[in-house]
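User: Can you write out an input/output pair for a complex, sequences first and structure second?

Assistant: Here is one pair. Inputs:
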Amino acid sequence: MNNNRLHLMRRTAQILFILIILLAPVLDIFRFDSDTRSLILFGAEWDLGLKQGFYLDHSIESASHVAWQFFVKAILPWIAILAVFPILGTLTGRFFCGWFCPEGALFELFDFLTTKILGRRGLFIRKPNDTGVHAHNRVPYIFLTLLLMICIPLFAGVALTGYFVNPRVVWDQVIHWEFTFGVKAGIIGVAIYIFISSLIVRHALCKYVCSAGLMQMLFGWASPVSLRVNADPGRLAACTDCKGCERVCFMNVKPRLPKKDINCVNCGECIAVCNKELGEKRGVFHYSQSKLCAVPPKELIDKRKHALSHIKTSLGGKCCEKTCN
Ligand code: SF4
Ligand code: SF4
């Protein structure tokens, strides 16, 4: 796949998923209505489907009906929801985090802006894979960052409060600037969370806090068939040690290391950057759903020994006889 196309596809997937998250309550696809205390799913009220006056009927038939409805309408859907991330992890590792997670996309946006202003991703610490190069003219980026730091948390607060209060009610209160306690608390709470996580925590949240990420990480790590980004030992011979794959990794993974880092979110940015450096389809990394490596190109095998010793020094002696695991 063309490098830019991979990058473009990921950005498109992230934007589409953000739109889905923002529009789901507005279009009544999924939300809880605090007025009626009911769940709205695809425009319909999700109820347990219990017969009228079931509590007056003490027969076995009625009890079985209640138990069955609870199982089908309450327990099974919960099991299905809870199973989503383990199943995703088993099949695709943390692909969802890298390609769809709205928070991940937001953190990447602020990583980009902070790099333009400070030459590093973090506000306080410089990581080894930071470029150290900031924009020549930092002023527009500073203004843009300040603007987004105010607008995004507030907009997210309004949009996400719609998951608990009818979005029409929320927007009506915003337009008239008159808020009930619930709506005000929802907007402020979400806005503070988005502000702090985007400004300070960022991908540390993906690594150490997010339970969805943790489930995908554990199941992906244990699964023999989960999608992963593998480094091909045969192609490592052609590595120029440009370090592009490390610089581009917002999860601070060193993808050339022999042991797979469980923090990799399968975003594919290292694949794109390495293909750019070494030529289309000649890059070191590739997606794989097995632990097997691609067959090393013949002409590279001879050069491999010399190259590996060079990369080994660059990676602190940890490289690289076996990378596809
Ligand atoms: S693996 Fe590719 S991107 Fe990484 S240092 Fe080597 S040539 Fe550069
Ligand atoms: S190692 Fe590559 S695929 Fe994994 S998170 Fe880093 S850049 Fe993305």
